[in-house]
Design brief:
Blueprint (H helix, E strand, L loop, with lengths): L1 H26 L10 E3 L3 E3 L5 E3 L3 E6 L4 H6 L3 E5 L3 E6 L4 E11 L8 E5 L8 E9 L14 E3 L2 E2 L5 E6 L4 E9 L4 E10 L5 E12 L13 E6 L2 E7 H7 L1 E7 L2 E5 L3 E7 L4 E11 L2 E10 L2 E3 L4 E12 L2 H10 L15 H18 L2 H15 L1 H16 L1 H10 L4 H15 L8 H19 L47 H16 L6 H18 L4 H24 L5
Parallel strand pairs: 5-11
Antiparallel strand pairs: 1-4, 2-3, 5-6, 6-7, 7-8, 9-15, 10-12, 12-13, 13-14, 14-24, 15-22, 15-23, 16-17, 16-19, 18-21, 19-20, 20-24, 21-22
């Protein structure tokens, strides 16, 4: 009766879990992200203490959005061309607001569109970087979003700079020089010459603004939103939701960096690492559109008549390639720049695992094969522990006939039966907990590998063999259409995607079942039945995870089965 009740309870729990997801998806679907609308930008705002601060926008009537390509085509621009980036700088406002990533596409289809990173105001999902000055004195004419700059240079390339100039007509002459390396790092140098005959105090600033909330993956293990390292501290807990609630978060720092991150892409300001600055994450509403902003303001720069001042800021705008982030962090002394990749709390495991995986990929040229080689290395490291565990489990399996006799003898006295079984373990020097040790050790390794496969762009669209063309995505095959044999495509089923199991999850479940068959059955029949369900549960659960992780788990199980069978053979235990 107790066993039946337990099984019924498990079935009801699973039904409630799936049913609640279906009800939520049907009757309470997630709200779509707001669509960006056009706003008119200004150059200054005020902080809580009343001092000048950079601002991307001010309240303005909403206007219909135009096509992105149309907005770009109807504005005067300086082209950007590099091996990895294509885009332009808008001469009106001097903003960097048009960037396309040459190496990355939206899907694994080589004909799919390239990833668009930055877009101008007036197009959907405007996203841009801006630089300038704010003045301490009132009435100083400063360059803003409506300023039309004059360009020196016809295009920005890794070997060719572009300088923008503007005269405010009051004796202040401004320059903005753009440089670009062969990857994703810009350098923006601002210079101002004071020929006004009066002292002027200016504050340099840089900002990144994003109009509208982007499509979010909303995974617990992934940070999406505002990010930075300020005053030596990693700030990775300011999500879009957080900043909408708090409106504004201020920081004081010397150097550091800040910006906005997606799963694979980053736009970040990197000021002079010796400069003292006031940094800020903020949110405001422009009509019905969310405006997110990461900005910094440098120290006051007094300019006497005839003096000039200069300020330089780096801007990273591109893919979060770990080797590049490491390189920039080292050569430019950018603190914790590699943490732009969300390696998580187990950084001490995830980063080394990634390094080994990337090294193995360099040897074999296939991340799937690299994952399998990494699994072998992990098993070699854990070999002594696993060997001890499998020997203990083999001894327990050899004691199976004796345990069966004890169960029959004391079937009406459960307490006495447990005492006799433990006495048998002690007599034969068997530790029943030893079999759990390899699993416990592998849990952080498993999670760290999952992190690596999920958050690193190196895994994005990385193929294995056959139908696995993206190790960072789930197995695309489905049992619901007999793995492609039936001529119809499986649509997105929402919560019921749990039922759509691919080939590799089934392989993983089979290897887990094989491994379980080699282990001694739990003495309690109820526990034994629950354990027998685990391969099925894990098949459905891991079927929704990345293919790379499922391949790792299936291969790891296979190696475990081979090792355990060999040990059992040597000990004379019947398989």
């Amino acid at each position: 009766m107790e066993q039946r009740n337990l099984i019924i309870a498990i079935a009801v729990s699973v039904a409630i879990l799936i049913g609640s997801q279906v009800v939520t998806a049907v009757f309470f679907p997630p709200k779509p992200a707001p669509v960006a609308t056009q706003t008119t930008a200004t150059g200054t705002a005020t902080t809580a203490d009343g001092s000048a601060a950079p601002s991307a926008t001010a309240a303005a009537p909403e206007q219909p959005l135009a096509d992105r390509s149309q907005v770009i085509a109807t504005t005067s621009r300086i082209a950007i061309h590099s091996p990895r980036l294509t885009g332009s700088i808008d001469l009106k406002g001097g903003r960097l607001d048009d960037l396309v990533l040459n190496d990355y596409r939206e899907t694994v289809d080589p004909t799919s569109p390239n990833i668009i990173l930055l877009s101008p105001v007036g197009a959907a999902n405007a996203y841009y970087a801006d630089f300038g000055w704010v003045a301490q004195e009132a009435g100083v004419a400063l360059p803003g979003p409506d300023t039309v700059w004059q360009a020196q240079g016809d295009q920005l390339t890794p070997g060719q700079t572009v300088t923008l100039t503007w005269d405010n007509g009051q004796g202040l002459k401004f320059e903005r020089r753009f440089e670009l390396d062969e990857n994703f790092m810009f350098k923006v140098t601002q210079r101002v010459q004071n020929d006004s005959g009066q002292t002027v105090t200016l504050f340099p600033y840089g900002l990144i603004a994003r109009h509208g909330t982007p499509h979010l993956l909303n995974y617990y293990i992934l940070h999406e939103g505002l990010l930075g390292v300020l005053d030596g501290t990693l700030i990775d807990d300011v999500s879009y939701k957080n900043i909408r609630e708090k409106k504004q978060i201020n920081y004081s720092s010397t150097g550091g960096w800040l910006g906005i991150t997606d799963k694979y892409w980053l736009v970040a300001l990197v000021p002079d690492q010796k400069a003292k600055l006031t940094a800020r994450f903020s949110h405001s509403l422009q009509g019905t559109t969310d405006l997110y902003q990461a900005d910094y303001r440098g120290e006051a720069t007094p300019l006497a008549a005839g003096q000039a001042a200069e300020n330089s800021t780096q801007l990273f705008a591109g893919a979060k390639v770990v080797s590049l982030l490491d390189k920039y962090g080292d050569q430019d002394n950018i603190p914790l720049f590699d943490r732009a990749v969300d390696f998580g709390y187990l950084y001490f495991l995830t980063k080394p695992i990634f390094r080994v995986l990337d090294f193995l990929y360099g040897l074999v040229g296939n991340f799937g094969v690299a994952i399998m080689l990494l699994t072998v290395l992990i098993r070699l490291i854990l070999f002594p522990l696993a060997n001890k565990s499998y020997k203990a489990m083999s001894k327990m399996k050899a004691l199976g006939p004796e345990m069966t006799k004890l169960k029959e003898r004391f079937k009406d006295d459960k307490a006495r039966m447990q005492q006799e079984i433990m006495a048998l373990y002690k007599k034969e020097k068997v530790n029943p907990a030893a079999g759990c040790l390899p699993i416990l050790v592998q849990i952080p390794i498993f999670f760290s590998l999952y992190k690596v496969l999920f958050v690193t762009i190196e895994m994005r669209h990385a193929p294995f063999f056959g139908w696995i063309q993206d190790l960072s995505a789930k197995d695309p095959t489905s049992v619901l259409n007999l793995f492609g044999l039936l001529p119809y495509h499986i649509p997105d089923l929402g919560p019921l995607n749990l039922l759509s199991i691919g080939v590799w999850p089934l392989v993983m479940g089979f290897t887990m079942w094989m491994q379980q068959r080699l282990n001694p059955a739990p003495p309690d029949p109820v526990q034994a039945r629950i354990m027998s369900l685990l391969p099925v549960i894990f098949t459905f659960m891991l079927g929704q995870y990345t293919a790379g992780l499922v391949i790792y788990w299936a291969w790891n199980n296979t190696l475990s089965v081979a090792q355990q069978r060999f040990i059992m053979w040597r000990m004379g235990v019947k398989v």
